[in-house]
Design brief:
about 700 residues; five-stranded mixed β-sheet; about 55% helix; eight-stranded mixed beta barrel; 27 helices; single chain; alpha/beta; about 15% strand
Length: about 700
């Protein structure tokens, strides 16, 4: 089975340590090969080639080189080839030249069949030649120097020579291959040997231990040699079944990538071997808009898309980095060694760049994107579970802020102990009445007439003092507390509206609610009961929702929206221009007012780009018969420019800052003119009757 994380066929850059190592071993190995072949006497070799035994052995060596015996899917240096048994037997019986000749032919054929890169074929030829040469040197020390003219057959007295020669063969191969893997994946050679030497030594012991028996059979009954294929096949298929089970337990079935279990093992190894001057990075990557592909094209196309994503990710990271699939469209990337946060961001940017390349499937082109969260050891967490949790926090921050890549920030972690304590304090603040509404006016940009106020929630913590809404509102939105907080705000706003309306200040109060609140079936009932309780018409309150609500089609058919429309409570669209709304979507919802985001408004006096954006929004809003409100108006120049564009209302510190109820009441009494109000003052009988 193919491992999508295997990038060893990618040639090393010239001058790198890996390139120097491969080049050095290749030169030494081919030198040993040439020396061995020069010692070969052609005449005995020709005679040997005329025997069926030679060709039987050659076929067995070639076949044994095609498929390795794998005992573990986690073996970083690959499997052990069954050809070892027959090659070592040829070394013992016919000598080094014949053995390296057969081995080299088998390695080349393996490279052609499996389409390996030329540098791997040459390195494998060199390292197997050096291993056979080391074994031949050990045999020579014991006075054993076989050749085609004088074949050697071991007996009981040769066990020591055979054992030491086998150890030398295994040690050279294990050391050379592990060295290449360590340089390729930037791991320590000790770690690679520890991970691979144990499982491989058992297989090598079995194969090399059978080689002398093969030699005995070769000398006594050559026609019986093919029978060794049977036990070898049994070992191969048993190991394959075991490896397949191990692979299934440690890898994702769809993509072939490591799964969470293997990611845990790899991360723990990386943490254990991390050096003081380096960090370990864990990324969490989630695809954007993948659900749309599944819903539109079906799961088979979605599965193929995930496989393509897996391939792109594995070829966008460095050798030794681990790409894992955690489930669905969520992937993780482990960087066992990374210099600092800046380098981690560069890798994350490269991953996103690979994802954004258009994908063509089923005759359609898909544009993908992803959000990446980064957590580093030891900066952010000491173990895998906490690293993953904090990478998850950073990933969701990247989604919310639409930046694509975010590093973990403790002050934005809603799950941190400080944030959880703040959530508990917020719950008590709601129960104890610590929250207050402040009111900021909305005025006409042409005649400064007051057309309403926006209710803004304020919290003065008894210990920490004022807490910014940006700190506690997102916290409430992610918890059970948001519904309770919304109910508190609506009731407080209605109570204040009643005080104003019943004393002649008939000013509409706008209240911000979340998308979850808007789709809550209890909201219309709460508003209807509140309006009846305070004897107010529906026009006394307005609900403001962010532009993101327009992204989902369910909002247009939701019963809560229909109930609000029937009740007559107007809706305003907040922060317009920061999302992806269309004119058609805007017309489909009962919106009466559109608020232009302050990030555009503040710069229109200096930036022509922002001025064009604001003018386009104003024209769009006017064309469909809605009212435009500019937020963040802080200077006369901005107000004048907005008025020239035809914007209806302005809101900002130029007209009035958010004020507590007493100050807002005094401000309104000085400036409110009932004759300029555009609110219908009539009461709705059905609301009154509900009381």
């Amino acid at each position: 089975m193919t491992d999508p994380t295997d990038t060893r066929d990618t040639g090393p850059r010239v001058g790198t340590p890996l390139w120097a190592y491969l080049a050095g071993i290749t030169v030494i190995g081919f030198t040993a090969l040439i020396v061995a072949l020069l010692r070969l006497d052609p005449a005995p070799l020709v005679e040997l080639a005329r025997t069926p035994l030679f060709w039987v052995l050659a076929v067995l060596v070639i076949l044994g080189e095609l498929r390795p015996v794998m005992v573990s899917s986690a073996a970083v240096v690959g499997g052990t080839y069954p050809s070892t048994m027959f090659t070592f037997a040829v070394l013992l019986h016919f000598g080094l030249p014949v053995a390296v000749l057969m081995q080299c032919v088998a390695v080349v054929i393996n490279g052609v069949v499996t389409r390996r890169a030329w540098h791997r074929v040459m390195f494998n030829t060199a390292q197997s030649t050096l291993a056979l040469t080391a074994a031949a040197v050990v045999l020579g020390v014991f006075g054993i120097m076989p050749s085609p003219a004088r074949p050697w057959v071991p007996d009981g007295s040769d066990l020591a020579a055979l054992g030491i020669a086998g150890v030398a063969y295994f040690a050279i191969r294990a050391a050379l291959v592990s060295g290449a893997v360590a340089l390729h994946e930037r791991r320590s050679i000790v770690r690679v040997l520890r991970a691979s030497a144990g499982p491989q030594s058992l297989v090598y012991a079995g194969l090399l231990g059978l080689a002398p028996l093969v030699v005995v059979v070769m000398s006594q009954a050559p026609e019986m040699v093919p029978l060794f294929v049977a036990p070898l096949a049994a070992v191969y298929f048993t190991a394959t079944l075991s490896m397949r089970r191990d692979h299934q337990a440690m890898h994702d079935e769809l993509t072939g990538l490591p799964n969470r279990k293997m990611l845990i093992v790899s991360t723990e190894e990386a943490l254990a071997e991390a050096r003081q001057d380096e960090r370990v990075g864990l990324f969490l990557l989630d695809l954007d808009r993948f659900k749309e592909v599944n819903d539109t094209m079906g799961h088979p196309v979605g599965d193929r898309l995930l496989q393509m994503v897996a391939h792109r990710l594995t070829h966008s990271v460095r050798p030794g980095d681990v790409v894992a699939r955690l489930g669905g469209d969520e992937f993780a990337v482990l960087l066992p060694s990374i210099r600092d946060a800046h380098a981690a961001r560069e890798v994350a940017a490269r991953l996103r760049a690979a994802l954004t390349e258009p994908v063509r499937l089923e005759g359609m082109t898909f544009d993908l994107d992803g959000s990446v969260g980064i957590a580093l050891y030891p900066d952010h967490a000491p173990d895998f579970e906490l690293l993953l949790q904090r990478a998850d926090v950073a990933m969701y921050l990247a989604k919310e802020s639409r930046t694509g890549v975010e590093l973990y920030q403790p002050n934005k972690d809603r799950n941190s102990p400080e944030r959880l304590n703040l959530l508990g304090d917020l719950r008590r603040a709601v129960d104890n009445g610590e929250l207050r509404l402040h009111y900021q006016p909305k005025v006409s940009l042409t005649d400064a007439a007051v057309h309403g106020v926006e209710a803004l929630l304020r919290w003065r913590h008894p210990v920490h003092g004022p807490i910014a809404p940006s700190e506690f509102i997102p916290l409430a939105e992610q918890s059970y507390l948001m519904r309770q907080l919304t109910a508190y705000v609506i009731d407080s706003a209605l109570e204040q509206a009643a005080r104003w309306w019943h004393t002649g200040l008939r000013v509409r109060i706008s209240v911000n609610i979340s998308a979850r609140d808007l789709l809550d079936s209890a909201l219309p009932e709460q508003l209807e009961m509140g309006l009846a309780k305070y004897q107010l018409p529906p026009a006394a309150i307005q609900l403001e929702v962010t532009e993101r609500i327009l992204m989902g089609d369910q909002v247009y058919q939701h019963e809560a929206i229909k109930a609000l429309a029937a009740l007559g409570v107007p809706l305003a669209l907040d922060d317009f221009g920061t999302g992806y709304s269309s004119l058609i979507r805007l017309q489909r919802l009962a919106i009466s007012e559109v608020k232009i985001d302050a990030s555009f408004v503040r710069r229109i006096a200096e930036s022509e780009d922002d001025a064009r954006i604001v003018r386009s929004i104003v024209d769009l809003v006017r064309s469909i018969g809605l009212r435009s409100v500019a937020e963040g108006v802080e200077t006369d120049a901005v107000a004048l420019r907005l008025a020239e564009m035809g914007c209806d209302l302005g809101q900002g510190w130029l007209f009035g800052k958010p004020m507590p109820p007493a100050d807002a009441t005094a401000w309104l009494r000085d400036r409110f003119d009932p004759s300029t109000s555009d609110i219908e003052y009539g009461y709705r009988p059905e609301v009154t009757q509900t009381a």
